[in-house]
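call fold(seq) -> tokens
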Amino acid sequence: MRTIVFFLIFYSWAMQIIAQDNSAQLKDPLAIAKLIGDKLVRETPFAYRLELASDNKEFSGMQMVDFGRNFTVSGKTLAYAYTRLEAPDNMEMDIQLGHNDACTIWLNGQLVYQSNTEQKLELIYDERSIELSFHFVAKLKKGGNSLLIKSVTNRADWRVYLQPPSNKGAVLNKKAVYPEIGLGKMELVDKRVSAITNWLVIGPFAGDKRIENLLSPTEAPVFGQMFQGSGEQVTWTVPKIDVIGNLIDPRPWGTNYHWNYHNGGVAWAMKMLGEISGEQKYEKYADDFCDFQLRSIPFVKYEMETLGKINVPNGALVNTPLLDFTLAPSLPFIYRLRQENTFANRDEYKQFVERMLHYARYEQIRLPGASNFTRTTPQKFTTWVDDMFMGIPFLVQASLYADNEADRKFFLDDAASQVLDFNKQVWDTDANLYVHARYSTSNEKLVHWSRANGWGIWATTEVLLHLPKNHPKYKAILKYYQAHVESLARFQDEAGFWHNVLDHPESKQEVSGTAIFTMAIARGVSNGWISRKNFEPIVQKGWKACATQVEKDGTVHNICYGTMCSPDVKYYMDRPFYDNDTHGLFAVLFAAIEVSKMQSQK
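ret:
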């Protein structure tokens, strides 16, 4: 009996402690934010680890043979490359090809491609793909297939690229089947060799027709045999093996510091957490993120341009025409320029931001006949609600950063116009919610994905924070915000969460969307856009829900992995959830900051 009484007393005491702890979390959301911030400071290295570059063994992405890194070009010069494709069944695939000057390809001894034109190699950078200029059809038999490439050039920049056709980010209903590529099934090639390269090469030869008789396209490479090359005897060898800089311990969703919008968002949030808390370590994290990226740019260019390695970590720093990798991750850069008049490498920040300002104004594609940003993926002129956040907050910061009235007006007017033009495309007037995207070729309604709605309302609040109330578009934007908040309130569950698909309560409770809505509604309460009486309880419930997902070591649970867009609700329902995905980290950090501001007004 005494044991039971003791247990009940202990249980009651423990519940009081938990209740007090939860109450403290509600009273001081910054304490939760600091747990996350401390984990970020503690665990983010801002460094590269050198690794041997190795080829992907599934032919699902880019393959490259860099003849120029292996052979000296003297006049018209020729070389060969060999690999094998192991097909799971008889199959046919279209293979994209990029090369300079003459190129000939044999598959299983049969000629499948030939070009003798003098031309410069061209890689066409798109949003989520790199397109190549040529193609050929490969009819693969089940099992092993030999692929022999002959390349002729007089250029030092001498490469051949191959890849399957890009799906440009489309959601595939069925997993594509790809052959294996490489030397692993070749009996006379040691596994240590096949582990680091998919190719054998031989050259250089003088570029005349007599060489055609030396190597038969029907035969596999013969080891231990020499050929008369250009000036000396040569034999089959492996391409030059390089080292690349890899990010340290990437998770399925990446790392805290690779170049992407949600990591730039974390840095932006950490800068603001440092300001509101007065703790410099959080601001330093943001500055370290920006400085690391600036240092990375020439290194990444070296890897991509000199080494020819296209799929390197942080490759999106170079030539990627997508808001996810341009304006959105640049927010901590332009914010720091606005906030700090002097710091050591301020000129580098200015140069970087000037490039992004030019991109925003002149380079990012927009929907014809409208102002809003749009995409070429998964098809040309697809409008994503995500791009409200990817672009509009930067435009607002650009207006605040501008040093003349014309630029201030241009960027703020652009931000306001974009909100309304996005809403013409992706606002669902029946539900007063955003659909994830709209294809230019149809009026099909896509899914009311939670985080996509978060991106839309977040961008809207950024504009409302800085748009003068007498601006001709202010009232229309405010009306959309108020309607969105009213609709979102209907979908908050009893525990304070919003679900991953807003109007599908059977979908999972999800943290990033919950945090963004909590943040955006708290802003509305603080700024008088909506009723404190009606909506502060929703903010408090939302924050309480977020706080339950944060461990004392700063771990944040239940964050949905990134998505493409799809009309299939099951695609969203089945998305994996992860701990500490930075999509959720920076959303919770911003929510904590805005809830703290709202509470301080009392």
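The chain has two domains: 29-50+246-600, 63-241.
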